[in-house]
Design a protein that fits this description.
The chain has 342 residues and is of the alpha/beta class. The protein has helices at residues 18-29, 46-54, 72-82, 103-124, 158-177, 199-208, 228-239, 276-287, 311-317, 325-340, and strands at residues 10-13, 34-38, 62-66, 86-89, 129-134, 181-186, 189-190, 213-215, 222-223, 226-227, 263-268, 274-275, 293-295. α3 packs parallel to α4 (103-124). It is globular, with a radius of gyration of 19 Å.
Length: 342
């Protein structure tokens, strides 16, 4: 990666979402000017999104824009008005299981919406686009740990396919218009203010309410659980280091994680595969309660294990995840009990 960005505003899409909220707080703490965009949809409890947003609004340097990525004219007008130094695209229709029943939501947000972000960057000279990809792109791959050098041509869900599409679209714009683009494949992010559709949140709610938890793949899943502060640290380090063309890239032996264009892909995870049953044990200990488990088969679109090789991100920006899952789960439970007063 090359030079740092000038001190101008950063657009964070999905600012009322889990990772977007934490990233906005981090950037504001650094004295950065942040424009936060979100449509506050009802995929999960909008009150949680509004509560996150309430902690950002009123802070010096923060401006909120309520807008849908798929609103082509609205997005173009915002980009022309604000003139961002950098963009971090975290807004997306998330969730593997939801994509089985609501596929069009993924095309609207993750494909059409991302195209509008790319067009905004193209027409207003944005210095760096950082965008969220996902560990889901590894799909049917079983070689662990997952490496950005691995092919990712066999997605197991439409959600994964849209994230792969984002990577391809970003590369095309980097190649055609010299827009520095960096894609980050997030691995199972968790922590305070987390998403209610994620397993840790679902399990915590059920255990505290005395209900059994549904444990798919009969508990044989493994996940690279990554604490949100570690994710945000990595993203913050990447923002100010726009990607540059890789002088070693060769068309006759192409590296999938770099390019002759200003483009890079990185995994961003904890570099540790934790058995799902171990996560449940830690959650039970933090809650002081034992879960009743319904052991169920693996669901369509799911994968048995994720595990990130993060060496390339470490080399590029010094990324080093530092939060053990034991500590991360304790912090999440403390937040959950305080927020829901239970």
């Amino acid at each position: 990666m090359s030079q740092t960005l000038p001190a101008a505003s950063i657009l964070v899409t999905g600012a009322a979402g889990f990772i977007g909220f934490h990233l906005c707080r981090r950037l504001l703490d650094e004295g950065r000017a942040v424009v936060g965009l979100d449509n506050l949809n009802d995929y999960y409890d909008p009150d949680l999104k509004r509560a996150r947003l309430a902690l950002l609004e009123g802070r010096p340097g923060f401006t909120f824009v309520r807008l849908d990525l798929a609103d082509r004219d609205g997005m173009a007008a915002m980009f022309a008005r604000e003139r961002f130094a950098g963009v971090v695209n975290l807004a997306a229709q998330a969730g593997v299981r939801y994509s089985l029943t609501n596929p069009h939501a993924y095309a609207d947000s993750n494909v059409v919406g991302f195209l509008n972000v790319l067009e905004g960057c193209r027409h207003t000279g944005v210095g760096h686009l950082v965008f969220a990809s996902s560990s889901s792109v590894y799909g049917l791959n079983t070689r662990l740990p997952f490496s950005v050098q691995d092919p990712v041509d066999h997605p197991a869900s439409l959600y994964a396919a849209t994230k792969k599409a984002n990577e391809l679209m970003a590369h095309a714009y980097a190649h055609l218009y010299a827009i520095p683009c960096t894609g980050l494949r997030f691995f199972t992010v968790y922590g305070p203010w987390g998403r209610p559709d994620m397993s840790l949140f679902i399990f915590t709610k059920a255990i505290l309410e005395g209900r059994p938890i549904d444990v798919f793949n009969r508990g044989h899943h493994e996940r690279d659980f990554t604490y949100v502060d570690d994710i945000v640290e990595g993203v913050a380090r990447v923002i100010d280091r726009p990607s540059a063309p890789d002088p070693a890239w060769r068309g006759d032996d192409p590296n999938p994680a770099s390019s002759s264009a200003p483009y890079r892909l990185y995994n961003i995870g904890n570099h540790q595969a934790v058995p799902l049953l171990r996560m449940i044990e830690l959650l039970e200990a933090a809650l002081g309660r034992t879960a009743t488990k319904n052991l169920l088969p693996m669901q369509p679109g799911d994968v048995p294990a994720t595990y990130a090789d993060v060496e390339s991100l470490t080399q590029a920006v010094g990324f080093a995840p530092s939060t053990p899952i034991e500590e991360g789960i304790r912090r999440f439970v403390a937040w959950y009990r305080e927020y829901y007063r239970c």
